[in-house]
Amino acid sequence: MNTAMHVLPYLVAVYVFLTGCYGLATSRNLIHAVGCLAVCQSATYVLLLAVGYRDGATAPVFSDIEPGSRPVVDPVVQALTLTDIVVGATVTALLLALVLQIAKRHGTVDPDELRELRG
Amino acid sequence: MHHLLPLLVALPLLGAAVLVATGRHLPRIAAEITGFAVSGGTAALAVVLLLDSSPPMVEWVGGWLPVGGESVGILVVGDGPALGMATLVSLLTLAALAYSWRYFDQPPHGRTGTFTALMLVFQGGMCGFAIAGDLFNAFVFFELMSVTAYALTGYRIDEAKAVQGALTFGVVNSLGAYAMLMGIALLYARTGELAMTKIGRGLDSAAGQGGPDALVLASFVLVLTGLLVKAAAVPFHFWLPDAHAVAPTPVCMLLSGVMVELGAYGVWRVYGTVFAGPGGIPAADLTRALVTLGAVTAAVGAVMCWYQRHIKRLLAYSTVAHTGLFVIGLGILTPEGDDGVALYMLGHAGVKAALFACAGVLLDRFGSVDEHALHGRAGQLRATGVMFGIGALGLAGLPTFGTGLGKAITEEAVGGPLTVVFVAASAVTAGAVLRVTARVFLGLGPRPEDAEYETSGSDEEPETPGLLGRIPDTMTIVPAVLLAAALAVGSVPGFGELVARYVNETGSGGAHVSVHWTLHGAVLGVASTVLAAALAALAVTRPRWVAAPDWAAPLRRLQSGHVGDYVAWLLVGATVLGALALPGVLGG
């Protein structure tokens, strides 16, 4: 039971990543595809936070607890996750802007109908 | 001196911020001069730091020094290869900015300097990736340069093809970056460290007497997937032709000249510092993986390059082929291979940027980059035609180009049957460029027939305000300077030795390698050039003999322009990479 609970977050991360990839590969709508890319990125959040988890630990905020008085989760991975979210927001915003332009110029957001660049 | 290292990133970013903040009040000329000054200043700083980089410098940004051997700070490393790449990035950005002097249409009111600002952010991101000493910041700078590159690729947002190419580029590269981040998280889970050298040591001590396990293999595959997507190794390469064919010419110069090479540099850096120890991936497995992928990349790139008629796409595939050669050279893990690839990259950056610059002249003069439509039309552009031809010879590795010297040394280091791959890939790509020169600038041969499944390159919008009647001097001088630099890399006595010394100090513990032209290398370089000329002559006089055979059609259909297909190929590639590296983990 305990081992299963420890492995579960990692399995969730893998599952979320592969789900996002499946969505990207089979997407019929570019907005949906950009969403799937964000799903793939969510897998990295899950993985990073799972890596830093400790049993019985609290948030690494020392304003109300004495340093060393009780275990805290790893703050490094939380900082990484925050940075990762910022990166993800930038990428998603830019890609959605590009999808908007594709809709205007091609008149469609179905990747199956975008066949200008090939061969 | 090491305190100045972060300025390589901070200067361009500050310059970009100033341009964005004051752009609306600045006349265009002031914005462009600011761009030059910042980019040139960064280049000068990179050169000064490079000359001072022995012994290598290390800087903990913001003074967050390690306490008791543990650190959470941002680490930047200033050794020969890192600062060499930063110098190359900065000089090439300067060249691209000079080329694009008064290049684009008058930007919309209140947005003066947008392009220059984006180029500066791109420069900062690439410099940051080159000098990053910890994996997480390598990821952040990887994403910074990628995001800027997407924006620059889709800079002309009114162009249907440009936005499509930029989106494909964005989705595939970001997915690769997220795979890389998963790998970094696994490495952190195992070692509790982010600095590359410390992760390497952590893996070794965690492994103890045993070898690598499944977690190390998974992190290796994930991190290398991200880097190989950037390096455009087959089957991660599909985004590259689509992006390079549609990006504005000055951006193509940077994408092909240095950004793709940064992916290969990342592979070299990460393997050497993180996975090279006893707890990492055994050398034999890395060699198997990289040499296999590199050889396939070179072959696919060369074949696809030959069958293109869209000139920028043709050059993009030639970049794919040459990156394959870089990956082979780095994969054999010898000091000679590293030195050869370093020189090859320097020469290739000059030659390829010059070729893209010449293709840009065609685009802005005729509104087309289609080899068939331009047949015999560019006869009066003598200077551009001559430079295009010289660039082709450089691509073939003719002595004494830098590409030739680098290729000769890498060939000798790799040895054996793979020499054929080097000679063939450089000959075919150079032959394709020579064929374009003969048809477009000299008007030789009959007009070729159209194929069924291809991107033509006709009906492109020029990037300048209207079609150019007269080619501005900057658009001729910049490629000439770039070609001269590529020639100098291979000809200036002692330059090769200097590069080798810088590379080996980091890469192989100061191994001394004698880097110079040998008879063997020069003969192979001349052989590639002769072969390229023969192929081009055959293509022009007897087009039917070298037309696309039936077996090439499926290969071309793989490049479907569909982003979902490319994502599926990325997953296939990651699986193949894992399979190639698996034996060492099972054996350990």
UniProtKB/TrEMBL annotation, chain B:
Its main location: membrane. GO terms for molecular function: NADH dehydrogenase (ubiquinone) activity. GO terms for biological process: ATP synthesis coupled electron transport. It comes from the Bacteria. It is found in: Cell membrane; Membrane. The keyword Metal-binding does not apply. Keywords: Cell membrane, Membrane, Transmembrane, Transmembrane helix. The chain crosses the membrane at residues 33-51, 83-101, 113-132, 138-155, 167-189, 214-233, 245-268, 288-307, 314-335, 341-363, 383-402, 414-434, 477-495, 515-540, 566-586. Residues 132-414 form the NADH:quinone oxidoreductase/Mrp antiporter transmembrane domain. InterPro entries: CPA3_Na-H_Antiporter_D, NADH_UbQ_OxRdtase, ND/Mrp_TM. GO terms for cellular component: plasma membrane. It is a multi-pass membrane protein. Pfam families: Proton_antipo_M (PF00361). PANTHER family: NA(+)_H(+) ANTIPORTER SUBUNIT D1, NADH DEHYDROGENASE. Belongs to the CPA3 antiporters (TC 2.A.63) subunit D family. This is NADH dehydrogenase.
